[in-house]
Amino acid sequence: MSWDVFASRFPAETRFIKELAKDWRPDPIGARADVINQILDVVPNADFSTDSDDGHIDSEGFSIEVTLGGGDRVDSIMFHVRGSGAPPLCVLKIIHRLGIRAYDCQTGEFLTADQSGKSFSDWQQYRDRVIEKKPPK
Known about the structure:
The protein contains three helices and eight strands. It is an alpha+beta fold. The strands form two sheets. A six-stranded antiparallel β-sheet has the order 3-4-6-1-7-8.
């Protein structure tokens, strides 16, 4: 279970995903190697050493799976956040560095610094309720 954030080159004037045209396609974020290097500028301990489409960020209290998709060109990034602490700040720093916008799958709105902490906190509360309801093994 993760707090999920989808990032891409969404048009600046778009306030809600439903405003996007059905045939909308994002402009590329960049070449895969360049995107990885920019993420490493922000999070030097990020690990993109495997041959998969994913990178991993491990920090105190949280981890983030960073999915760039296959191929040499990155059109979007999916962040799968787990744990606690300050992962929204990490995600915000990365999207700021890349000059892209992010869609918060928890709230259904674009991610902002003002609401990211509350969204993550709400997700943590939901996660904790779901985990408590699981029957013991």
